[in-house]
Amino acid sequence: MSNETQEGYVEMHMKHLEMLQNVIARMAESSASIKNYCMTISAAIIGLATAIQKPEVLYYTIPLVLIFGILDAHYLRLERAFRDQFNSVRKSSLSERPDFLISPSWTAGHRVFSGVFSWSVWLFYGPLIIVLVAIARIMSKT
Question: Residue 131 pLDDT > 60, yes or no?
């Protein structure tokens, strides 16, 4: 193989890694956006429940928070799968032409609900649910 071909393959590998890194960054941005939307909607519903003096409205928010949590976990799962593919491409031989595959690398560690049990999901959505229930109970007592 010529030196020019070798350099071309190295450049192709770098471009492939850049494309995968962009996908990983979009997954992380989507996860942050989901948390932002969830917090905004929850705050709006807390304000509404307080304004109309109906604490039971807050209990209807819990399934919504759970849905946001599952969606966030899905983005986390995708991010992990793309990170695995990134590492696979990073470790591949530079003497071979890259295939430019942009697809999640599903392994046993990427089960459907694997992201749900992540600390970044539970430490955000769990306390939010606790706060919603606490505010509803405080409002019910007054």
Answer: yes
Q: What angle do CA 19, 34, 124 make, to 5 degrees?
A: 115
- In this prediction, residues 111-126 reach a mean pLDDT of 82
Q: What are phi and psi of 108, to 5 degrees?
A: -60, -30
Enter the tokens of residue 60: 């209807």
What are the structure tokens assigned to 42, written together? 């929850």
In the chain, the number of structural domains is 1
**pTM for this prediction:** 0.83
Q: Give mean pLDDT, residues 33-42.
A: 97
Q: Where are the alpha helices (DSSP H) in 53-118?
A: 56-91
Compute the C-alpha angle 57/76/119, nearest 5°.
Answer: 70
User: Which residue range is the domain that position 108 belongs to?
Assistant: 3-141
